[in-house]
């Protein structure tokens, strides 16, 4: 038993650790991913699925630019077409301005019917919106 615990501890120590990564949780409080302080988005298996750079550039797992978040919260695809927007109150809209969700100030993520679909506490609301509504975690 001691050998198993030691092996598990050594494996955990050898794993790359994310500093300041905030866990993204589903509605049943299960971990569905994380966003690190430098914008790396990971799925529940800890595989990188994308990144949001400090200038708003959104990249996929292959580091290809797939979009951008403008300073006003507008989310654009690689062709610079508007595909969504995060308003100052956390409301998330699609490219046709229809409400598709909301990121509450406490990190609760809601769908268009105002039902809770998860939590993203401690994550910038624009980043949380991109992770929940525009990435497949």
UniProtKB/TrEMBL annotation:
Region forming the signal peptide: 1-21
Domain of life (superkingdom): Bacteria
A UniProt-annotated Pfam family: Bflower_2
Record keywords, A-Z: Signal
Name recorded for this polypeptide: Uncharacterized protein
Species of the source: Tannerella forsythia (Bacteroides forsythus)
